[in-house]
Every structure is written in structure tokens, then in C-alpha cells.
Design a protein that fits this description.
By secondary structure, this protein is an alpha/beta fold. It has one domain: Rossmann fold (3-Layer(aba) Sandwich), CATH 3.40.50. It is built from ten helices and eight strands. Helix 3 packs parallel to helix 4. The longest helix has 14 residues. The structure holds NADP nicotinamide-adenine-dinucleotide phosphate. NADP nicotinamide-adenine-dinucleotide phosphate binds next to helix 1 and helix 4.
């Protein structure tokens, strides 16, 4: 799959490597793409670099992984290109980093991903990879037993399907928690945030409240 990555920081560059290793094609972007040349050289022929607009155009799916305060301007610039696309949003609201934007996003009763999604109407938004530290992603990918769980929340079945596939390809196990508003349940300050919890641990933590648990119960 072609994946556009907006943000080449800790999370963007870590997932870029994991997805290239899984044979995906990535375009990783920065406001200064020339600075990413050594990263894409290291990543090999399935990686290229460009601007955030290039990544939005390139991706069949797009990973948005920038500080929250950058989202409103990116939404104004990229909204039309991202319309109809699956967007994986790793964002978290941190007041000390994102200031007023963090306060505004945190006031949204459906969480910061719902706040961001509302700025990009028509995109298929999924909250993903926001709850796991990038060093855990780098060191624990493809762990043979009891994989690290990545909680997902979305209103779009297509976004959940694609995000689940990309989570597995990166070396983790998706745990679908529910609609986008339930992303609030794995934001900073919740009991599952930044724990590196396994998928089975996450399912236990969410008890019967994850969508997969409901499906599994229906099947059994
Ligand atoms: N670090 C973690 O372990 C972790 C874990 C889970 C979730 N998160 C969340 O994921 C998001 C990204 O985190 P990170 O730690 O990867 O961030 P980071 O290392 O600080 O990198 C952020 C990237 O965003 C880009 N950026 C900043 N302002 C921008 C703007 N105005 N327009 C376009 N691009 C901009 C920067 O690119 P240029 O300056 O090169 O343009 C940079 O590559 C944050 O919301 C964070 O809270 C982080």
C-alpha cells in the first residue's frame, strides 16, 4: 500500500521503517524535505520524501503524526486532498507543547481525535498509535508472543480495516475499542496510556467494552 506520512519525528520515522520492512511504499514528509534525505536513503527504495502536501497526495492511507498545534493549519492546507482518504491520527493533546489548541481539543467530549477529524470533514479518521511510546514500537515490533496492542477508534469501518492491517504489518495487534469518540479512553491520563500493554492486557483492561470483545462473544 502507498502510505503518506505527515511528520517525520519519533513516531513518523519509526513507523516508516516498520512499514517499509513490511513492503509498503512510504512518502515521509517534512516542511524541510531535504533534511530527510539521509533517512530515506537508509530506508531504501520503497521510501521517498516530500512536503506534507506530497504525502497527502501520495498516500492511499495517510499517517498524521505532528504536534496537535500544527493540525489546524495543515487541515486548511490539506483538507481537500485528504477528503475521502483514510487518516491514521497519532495525536495527543499536551498543554505544555500545544497551548490553547490542547485546551480546545481536550474540551471535546469525544476526545482530541474527534476534534481533529472535525477540521477535516470527509476524511475517514482513525485514532491509532497514539498510546504507545515510539521506543516501545521500535523495540517490541513483531514480538512472537503476546504482541503489543494498538487500540483503535473510528466511525469508519474502512478506516478500521486499513488501520488494523497496518498495525499488524508494523508488528503489533490491533484492538478495536469502538467509535471515534471512544478514543478518549486511551488518551494521556488514562490507565492504558503509555503502558506498552499487550493486546490481551488491553482487552482485559477494556473488559467487555472493546468492539472485538463484542464480536468474539457473538462468534462464540
Ligand atoms: N513520541 C512518542 O513516543 C509518541 C507516542 C504516541 C503519540 N505521539 C504523538 O504523536 C504526535 C507526533 O509525535 P512525535 O513525538 O513523533 O513528534 P516529533 O518527534 O516532535 O515530530 C513532529 C513532526 O511534526 C512535524 N511538524 C511540526 N510542526 C509542523 C507543522 N506546523 N506542519 C507540518 N509538520 C509539522 C515536524 O516536521 P518538520 O519540523 O520537519 O516539518 C516533525 O517531523 C504528537 O501528537 C505526539 O503527542 C508521540
Amino acid at each position: 500500500m502507498r502510505i503518506g506520512i505527515i511528520g517525520a519525528g519519533m513516531i513518523g520515522s519509526t513507523l516508516a521503517k516498520l512499514w517499509v520492512d513490511a513492503d509498503h511504499e512510504i512518502l515521509i514528509s517534512s516542511r524541510h524535505p531535504d533534511k530527510l534525505q539521509s533517512l530515506v536513503d537508509e530506508l531504501g527504495p520503497r521510501a521517498s520524501t516530500g512536503t506534507p502536501a506530497d504525502a497527502a497526495t501520495f498516500g492511499e492511507a495517510v499517517l498524521l503524526t505532528v504536534p496537535l498545534k500544527a493540525v489546524p493549519a495543515l487541515a486548511r492546507e490539506l483538507g481537500p486532498v485528504l477528503r475521502g482518504k483514510v487518516v491514521l491520527d497519532t495525536g495527543n493533546a499536551y498543554e505544555q507543547r500545544d497551548g490553547d489548541i490542547a485546551r480546545e481539543a481536550s474540551r471535546n467530549p469525544r476526545g482530541s481525535a474527534s476534534w481533529a477529524a472535525a477540521l477535516l470533514p470527509g476524511s475517514k479518521w482513525v485514532k491509532a498509535f497514539n498510546s504507545v511510546y515510539y521506543k516501545t514500537l521500535a523495540s517490541e515490533a513483531h514480538r512472537p508472543n503476546d504482541p503489543v496492542g494498538i487500540p483503535l477508534a473510528s466511525d469508519s469501518p474502512e478506516a478500521l480495516d486499513i488501520a488494523s492491517r497496518l498495525v499488524r504489518d508494523a508488528g503489533f495487534e490491533p484492538v478495536v475499542i469502538g467509535d471515534l469518540g471512544r478514543g478518549k479512553e486511551f488518551e494521556p491520563g488514562t490507565s492504558v496510556y503509555n503502558t506498552g500493554m499487550s493486546a490481551s492486557g488491553l482487552r482485559r483492561a477494556f473488559g467487555g467494552r472493546s468492539a472485538e470483545s463484542r464480536e468474539q462473544r457473538a462468534e462464540s
